[in-house]
Design a protein that fits this description.
5-stranded mixed sheet
Length: about 280
Amino acid sequence: MILIADGGSTKADWIALDSDNNEAFRARTLGLNPAVVDTAELRNRIVNMFQLMSVKDEVTAIHFYGAGCGTPKPIEILKNILESIFVNAKVSIAEDMLAAVYAATGLDPALVCILGTGSNSCYFDGEKVHMKTASLGYTLMDEASGNAFGKKLLTDFYYEKMPTQIAKKFQEQFELDIDIVKFNLYRQPNPNMYLATFAKFMFDFKEEKYIKKIIKKEFQKFFDYRILPYQKTAETPIYFIGSIAFYFKEILEKVAAKHQLKITGIIQRPIDNLVDFHRRK
């Protein structure tokens, strides 16, 4: 049995393929970003998923693509955990950017971007992934991501910069007691995932001028820092992966057009495309 996983900061999607390459089952765990979640919690999130544990001795290979898996240390942490659980499996770990490439374009050259809980981009030349800038994560970067929008909504609310009617709805939807907010930001695992939960608020109010302005400004920052530096022309395909890109497609396309670029495709969840890619290999 083979396990293929797309591991974001918020959630990790798993699909198991049997010996005939047919889907045996699919499962979802909490996010498995080894850059922000400690070792014990990472392990708990895996072993608490019954479907995965029920086949742990049958798994012969794991292809894990994950947020936070772009440098050696977090890769080693996650690899050690997976090998200790799936004792008969050969474990391969790569960053989520490579999963986005395989899911979006296969082996064809393209610009590929992630806009989910976090954000990133790369240029794939058909063989190698090229990244202009390393990602320093949610604290310093992640433009136009779920956690970036969450930060903006929270700060606008507390600075009283949010329009009154929208602030009222925001307060009704979330627990905004200051002690609870600070506890989740500074004392709990995955503060980036916590921040991203606030971004969901925008989906219901995306026609509001205030929300549109926030989205457009963040998308522009993403293009400035994560797309334009590659200096590609309109002939270069551009793909986006993730819910932020999916739900705010119209605004994203307008920002792209402003720079004489066109978005080739947007994929909300890459796991099925990723599995198809592995079946063709």
